[in-house]
Fold this sequence. Notes:
The complex is a heterodimer of chains A (277) and B (298).
Chain A: H1 6-28, H2 40-44, H3 57-69, H4 82-113, H5 115-128, H6 137-144, H7 147-172, H8 176-184, H9 189-227, H10 232-241, H11 245-273
Chain B: E1 6-16, E2 22-33, E3 38-42, H1 49-57, E4 64-69, E5 72-73, E6 81-84, H2 96-107, H3 113-126, H4 143-156, E7 161-165, H5 173-188, E8 193-198, H6 201-207, E9 210-214, E10 222-227, H7 243-262, E11 275-278, E12 293-294
Parallel strand pairs in B: 3-8, 3-9, 6-7, 7-8, 10-11
Antiparallel strand pairs in B: 1-2, 1-4, 4-5, 9-10, 11-12
Amino acid sequence: MDKLSVNQRATVLSLVILVVGLLAWEAAIPGQKIATELTEYERLTGGGAPKAGVPPPSQVLVKAWEQLSNPFYDAGPNDKGIGIQIAYSIYRVLTGYLLAALIAIPAGFLIGMSQVAYKALNPFIQVLRPISPLAWMPLALFIIQDSNASAIFVIFICSIWPMLINTAFGVAGVRQDWVNVARTHELGPLRTAFTVILPAAAPTILTGMRISIGIAWLVIVAAEMLVGGTGIGYYVWNEWNNLDLTSVIFSILMIGVVGMILDSVFAALQRAVTYAE
Amino acid sequence: MTQPFLKIENLTQRYPDGQGGEMTVFENASFGVEKGEFVCILGHSGCGKSTIMNILAGLSEPTSGVVKMDGFEVSGPSLDRGVVFQNYSLMPWLSALRNVTFAVAARHPDWPKAKVVEHSKQYLSMVGLDGDAIRRKPSQLSGGMRQRVSIARAFANHPKLLLLDEPFGALDALTRGTIQDELLKIWGGTEQTVFMITHDIDEAILLADRILLMTNGPYARVAESVEITIPRPRNRTSIIEHPNYYKIRNHLVHFLGIRSKELAGKQADGPQAPQTVRIEEPAQPNPEPRAPLRAVNE
C-alpha cells in the first residue's frame, strides 16, 4: 500500500466506496416473497401482487446496458433512446447558452469598461438575476408560442447572468499597467480590447462561462419536465409516469455524467487561458 | 541658447486634497534634456517624480504647463516615448519573445512576421536573453530577467525618448549591478535619449550625464542640475576611484538629506529653471562639497 502513489490510493478508495455502496443498496431492497410463502391474510390483502419498489443496482445496471447498447432507437413519441433524449437536451442547452454568450460577453465588456454603463445597468441586473429561470416560462410560452423555443429562452435567461457579471468584473479588474503598455504602444481601442483586455480578463470570463453551463444543465431538466415532448428532463418525468423507477435512476445517473463532461470541457478551456503572474 | 530636444515649461500639477482645497505637488517646473543625453531625476517620495514621468509618457495630463519634444507639443502617449515601468508590466500570458514582438509589431505594422521576430530576438540577446529563456512566460523568469525583457522591449522600438521609472527598484543589489552594466552597454550603442527616475544615488552617478534634484513636496521643484564630470565609459568598480566621485556623491547626499527640506514648500512665482552645478576636482579650490552655482539654462 505504501508503494502506491496518492492517485492510485485514491482510486482504490473510490472503488471500495463504490462497491460497498452498491452492495449496501442491493442488500437494503426487501426481496419479494413468492405467493406460496404468504399467509392467508397477506394473500387476501393483495400481498401477492408485484410490488413497486426502488430497484436494486443490479437491475439498474441491466437497464443501463440495455439502453446504452442501443441509444438512438426511435419507436414513437414516448419511446426514444437515451442518446436521442440527451442530444435534444444538449441542443437546447447549447443554443440558449451560445445566444447568452453572444450578448453577455460584449455587454460585460461595455459594463466593465465604463463606470456609467456599470452604474446604469447594475439595478436591472440585480433585480433580474435572482429570478428563478422557470418563472419566465409562462411568459415565454405566451409570447413565443413554441414550447421548444421557450425552453431555449429559459436556458438563455439563466446562463446570461454569471457570464455578464464575470466578464464585467474581469474587464474592470485588468491591471492599469497593461492598459498603459497598450497606450504607450499606440494600440487602438479594438486592438487593446482583443490583444490586452480579452486575454487579461479571459480566466475570469471563463469562470463565468463555466458557472453558466453548470446552471444551464441544472435548469434544462426542470424546463423539459414542464414543456415535455423530448429531452432528458421529459424522459425522467415520463418514466416516473410509467412507474419505471429503474429508468428514472438510470437517467438520473446519465444527467450527472453529461453534466460532468460539460464541466470538464470548460475546466480544460479555463486551464488553457489561465496565466500565472 | 538653442532649444533643447526635450523642453518642459512651467509644468504644474495640483490634486484635490479631499477637503475641498487643492494640493500642489509641483509648480512651474522647467527644465530641458538634450538629444542623446542620459538624465536621472532624484528626489524623495511624494515630490512628484512619477507624476512628471507619467506626463512625459503622455499617460496623464498636467494641470498646466507644456512638454515639447523636437519642437512639438506632447499630448497623449506615443511610440516615440518608450516606457520601462518599475513593475516590468509584461503581459503574463505571452512569452518573453512575444512580449517584445508585440511591441515591435505595433511600431512596424508593415514588417513581415519573420523580420519582427528577428529584430526582437536581436534586442533580447543584447540584454543577455536567448535560447530557451525567451520562450518562457514572465512568471517563469526571475525579476532581473523580466526587467531585461522590459528593457529590450523599450529599446527595440527606438523611441526618441526613453523613460525609465525606477527600473531597478524591485531588484536585489547584485542583479541591479549586472543590469545597470547591460543598460549602459545597450545605451552606449544607440545614443538614445534617456530620462530615468531613481532613488539610488550611486546608480544615478554611474548612469547619468546629468542629475536633476527635486526638493520635497508640496510645491516641489527641480532645484539643481548636477553635471556628472566623470568620463565614459564608466564602470561600477573603477568609477569610485575617480576624484570627482565622492565630491558629487557628497553633494547629492547633502542635498537630499538637508537642502531638499530647506528648499521645500516655497511657492515660486516665475519659471523655475534648475541651477546648474558642475563639480570638478582640479578646478575646485574649495574642498567644501557645495560648489559655486552657475546658471546656464537661460
